[in-house]
Amino acid sequence: MKKINGEFDVMNGEKMKIPSSVPLHEMEERYRALVEMSPEAIFINRENKVVFVNPAAVSLFGAESKEQLIGKSPFELFVPEYHSLMKQRIETLFDGGVVPRIEAQALRLDGRRVHVDVAASLIIENGVKAIQVLARDITERKLTGEMLRANMEKYRTLFESVHEGFYLAEAIFDENGVLCDATYREVNSAFLKLIGRERDQVVGRRMKEIVPAIKPGWLEVFGRVTLSGQSDTHSEYSETFKRYFEAVVFRPTAGHFGVLVSDVTERKRIELLLQKNLKENQVILDSVPAMIFFKDKDNRFIRTNKAFEDIMHLPKEKLEGISIFDIYPKEQAEAFWNDDKEVMSSGREKVGIEEQMNTPAGTRIVQTDKFPYFDEEGKVAGVIGFSQDITTRKLAEEILRNSRTAAINLMEDADEARRKSEQASIAVRYSEMRYRRLFESAKDGILILDAETGMIVDVNPFLIEMLNFTKDQFLGKKVWELGFFRDIIANQDNFLELQKKEYIRYEDLPLETADGRRIDVEFVSNVYSVENRKVIQCNIRNITERKRVESALRESQADLSRAQNVAQIGSWRMDVQKNELIWSAENHHIFNIPEGVKMTYETFLGTIHPDDVLNVDQKWKAALNGEPYDVEHRIIVAGKIKWVREMAELEFDAKGVLLGGFGTTQDITERRKVEDELRFSERRQSILSESATIMLQAVEPQKIIDDVCKKTMEFLGCQVFFNFLYDEEKNKLRLNAYQGIPEDEARKIEWLDFGVVVCGCVARDGKSIIAEDIFTTNDPRTDLVRGYGVRAYCSHPLKAGENILGTISFGTTKRDKFTEDEISMMKSTAELVTVAMQRKEWEKKLVESEERLRLAQISANVGVWEWNPHNGNFVSTPELSRLYGESHYAIRKHQDLQRKVHPDDLEKVERERNDAILSRRSFDLEFRINYTDDEIRWLSSKGGAFYDENGEVVRVFGVNADITVRKMAEEILERDKETLENIIRERSEKLLEIQMELDRAKRLSDIGTLASTVAHELRNPLAAISISAAIIRRKTRNDFIIGQLKSIDKMVTESDQIINNLLFYSRLRPPHHESIAIYDIIDECVGNLSRQIKKPVEFSRSYEPLKGVMLSADPLQMKEVFHNLLHNAVDAIPDEGGRIEILAKDYPEIVRIHVKDNGHGIDARHLEKIFDPFFTTKAQGTGLGLTVCNQIVNMHGGMIEIDSQPDMGTTMTITLPKKEKGK
């Protein structure tokens, strides 16, 4: 800091005048101390030599003492690239100009370059010009900025490269605190691709502009996450984009929410397809008349069909999830459960189980087949059961057995009776009793006729019950007289035919019972002799239930055929004895082979994909030896490949000889496609995750790239990969890892130039290259890999920002193209390798950054600490203890910090810090400490807290710095502040007065020159015009001409007034003060104007408070002021008339007069120019009226103000002092 001719130069280059009353040596010493303690480097350049440096400059330029810098050229302290600009800045300062702060590079004495922020100003000492330079070291800031930009670029690259769409939005809430809209602040390319928009069409726009039909569910989730901070997931169908979207929503910062969104339309389609298949399968199950159920290993029903639900009188919802012990008696349930456990433990089916089942309708007899089903790991997961209700069948079998037995016994007894007619009558009676017992108990209807007459002689109870007739209605009647037998024996001729044949049989005959029911019966009659008399026995069996079962079976078979078609499940039967294969219609449809074509096992094998024939044949042959037949394989249909699943059961005769097999064929092409896609995706994620873990944990990531790329290569079915890394020293690509070519070939391509072959072009351009159909294209870049037999090749750059790290490439020799998923996998691997390679560089920079931070803390005189308020853990840097006047690490706990704080400051420090932490904001404290017993220092402490998910404080941290010097400087500056302010204020007022006087003089000079010119150039022509008009007026009597002459006179008068205004303004002199009655002057001006104007204007005179008030003013100038203001008010009023109000108020020291009109008013944009010379808003006028008024009022020490709005009128307010200024 230099004393310059009674002035002190401050660090920003401005000068301050110091009054002579202040001891200059004291001021100089104070500022010298400030310069010496300044953290900014300061040096003075005089005649291109350094003549002064402060300690900060010594440190900045790497000197050990000031002497090493004094006398050096300033050009030696800066890099050569800056010298030209230095010369320009020095010349500008010497010419009296000002130069801005700039960034440059300083050259330390040790040759190291540092970034600095430079300011310079001109100083003068004893008439000699010099340059004062201030420099601040910004190297750390530059490095931090560069790292920040690099990190931002990496973030941007990652942000743009993720496959999921991402956007950041600012929430907009309504007055009720409900989220109603949002503004897009940032989006990535994937999101733009999802919605089909460009970035400039989205960023900054409202969400409802982009998605007008957004569903309330999305807004509800966005609002909840923004307010609570709790992440959430949501998915919905978008009507705007006709797609399903699934999103993860989180809150990155207050008032904003981030959304990671994926297009899950395809997944939803697959889910819907699966649901559809499940429904279709359920329809098939429900259409089957047999009862079907699925049970898990814990004996719970997990799926049932309609037949099972109907017989149990329970809906599906109540059945699923309950145990058999919940619906059957314990003894019965245990029997069922034992069968289940046997099937699950053996893994084999158990068929033909006959058992009783208790149902709400009663006990039923069922035949059940039970099969195990398996999970994806091949383990038994439960049991599938198929049950047929065979109650009716069992009943029919019982009836049949009884009838046959009865008939046989009857015949045997009859024969025995005929052969032994000689036996005693007691034997006959016994036989008759036995027959009667059978006759009465038979479960078929029996009718006995006289063979001669056809008269009914007997009927058994079963027939009476069957037809619902009484016994009397039968006996004594001839058979053809009964209506229900009319179709059997219609007349006596038919009866004679029966007598002749002695046997008749009807397989299916309809009868009508007495109550009108229709039943189907089987009718058999035959003739035999009883005691030498022929009788006819008619056996009548009710087959109605059997017919119903047969009909249901036919319907079931038809339903099964339809179900096979819907479920794409065909069935087949193989006769191994005849080598004959019989297919259902759906099986023919699946294989696209017309019905009627003869099929054998060999023709079936001919439809199978060549790669699967052996496996299918082996499976079938194994099945013939007792193993299960369940195989999935491909078939070729019309040149396309389908996937099918076949299952079969073998059939044997009573002797155990294999007859063939019955099986099903299901078209699983779509399922396999979905499974292949899912397997690809899962495997892809697994490889990437595993590779990421390995590479991020590796000490030397470059050495394990080979393993990672091999896994990717094998997964993609590639045979070749290359990894080249950039060698900065040779400026070439070096082969780091490879696979698929001989070692001697690898040595030939160990080094590649940029722009050579595919990898060199990718490294040069920083863009991926996908080369397909290499053998049929003529791209010279692919010549190298074509020589290795590669047919498709994909190469990706490894980039860190704009820097190329290398390339990674994959190739295949077995196909000509890659799928999009395969290319995406290669790109992801490249990104993974890039991140892993960058990690080492980041770790190195982090170590360097931490060391720089440590040095910066030392040089900046700061200490850092962190405290856990829950367990008291406290960590700090050694500099913290030094700040508090203690030895290294003497500050070991938070109480040590509190102990050193000055007692008068401790309560305030703790309160402000706690308040900041509770309100979740940072703290910035300044306080005193007891540095030693007899020394007090000032410290600042800036910091904050970390919080857990519940908002609880987990750690408090702070950065403390010694600000004692700053506080001392502030005290010095505060003491000198009032003196400096007085000096500056006085100088400012004087400069303002001088400037105003100069401005006024310039304007007066300009206007005076203009006024004299106008007066000379215009008044002579105007006089000639007036004289000519007077001469013409005397000689003419024409009214029209006289009227025009009046117009000329008026225009001449107005022109003369304009000239007078100009002359008045130019000749305006300081007022000649005298005591005047201001009321009389205003009243005179109003009266004169009211007599002159021709418009209908109403004057409101409200200035009576000024009566008797005397002012010290120039009367002529006051009249000019009010004359102009009143004329302006009249001009503003339209021709149809208006109102002007003059109001006044009297105050002890001043008077205030308002002139208010209701005219057209003045536009706001004109108000700031209204007092400028020659500015006017009127069609006619000089624009000097208000300028003159303003000048006069200001010269009287008053003030004039204007308030106006368009179409609302204008108010001019004048404030005048009663006494002349200074008296």
Structural description of this entry:
By secondary structure, this protein is an alpha+beta fold. It folds into eight domains: about 5-135, 2-Layer Sandwich (Beta-Lactamase), CATH 3.30.450.20; about 145-265, Beta-Lactamase (2-Layer Sandwich); about 275-390, Beta-Lactamase (2-Layer Sandwich); about 400-550, Beta-Lactamase, CATH 3.30.450.20; about 570-665, 2-Layer Sandwich (Beta-Lactamase); about 675-845, Beta-Lactamase (2-Layer Sandwich); about 860-960, Beta-Lactamase (2-Layer Sandwich); about 1070-1215, Histidine kinase-like ATPase, C-terminal domain (Heat Shock Protein 90), CATH 3.30.565. Helices cover about 45% and strands about 30% of the residues. The chain is built from 35 helices and 46 strands. It has a six-stranded antiparallel sheet with strand order 31-30-29-34-33-32, with helices on both faces. It has a five-stranded antiparallel sheet with strand order 5-4-8-7-6. The longest helix has about 70 residues, at about 965-1035. The radius of gyration is 57 Å and the shape is elongated. Residues about 1-25 have low confidence and may be disordered.
Category from helices, strands and their pairing = alpha+beta
The profile of the biggest β sheet is: 6 strands, antiparallel
Counted by DSSP, the helix tally is 35
State the name of the first-level CATH class of the largest domain.
Alpha Beta
Strand order of the largest sheet: 31-30-29-34-33-32
- Helix share bin: 40-55%
Secondary structure: number of strands: 46
Write the topology of this structure.
Elements: E1 3-4, E2 7-9, E3 15-17, H1 24-37, E4 41-46, E5 49-53, H2 55-60, H3 83-94, E6 102-107, E7 113-125, E8 128-137, H4 139-161, E9 165-173, E10 179-187, H5 189-195, H6 207-210, H7 216-228, E11 232-238, E12 243-250, E13 256-263, H8 265-287, E14 291-296, E15 301-304, H9 306-312, H10 316-319, H11 330-346, E16 350-359, E17 362-374, E18 380-389, H12 391-419, H13 425-441, E19 445-450, E20 456-459, H14 461-467, H15 471-474, H16 492-501, E21 503-512, E22 518-530, E23 533-542, H17 544-567, E24 569-575, E25 580-583, H18 585-591, H19 601-606, H20 613-624, E26 629-637, E27 640-652, E28 658-667, H21 669-697, H22 705-716, E29 720-727, E30 732-739, H23 743-748, E31 751-752, H24 757-765, E32 769-771, H25 783-787, E33 792-800, E34 803-812, H26 820-859, E35 862-867, E36 874-876, H27 878-883, H28 894-900, H29 903-918, E37 923-932, E38 935-947, E39 953-962, H30 964-1035, H31 1039-1066, E40 1074-1077, H32 1078-1092, E41 1097-1102, E42 1110-1113, H33 1115-1132, E43 1138-1146, E44 1150-1157, H34 1164-1167, H35 1185-1195, E45 1199-1205, ...
Parallel strand pairs: 41-43
Antiparallel strand pairs: 1-2, 2-3, 4-5, 4-8, 6-7, 7-8, 9-10, 9-13, 11-12, 12-13, 14-15, 14-18, 16-17, 17-18, 19-20, 19-23, 21-22, 22-23, 24-25, 24-28, 26-27, 27-28, 29-30, 29-34, 30-31, 32-33, 33-34, 35-36, 35-39, 37-38, 38-39, 40-42, 43-44, 44-46, 45-46
Helix pairs in contact: 8-17, 12-13, 21-22, 21-26, 22-26, 30-31, 32-33, 33-35
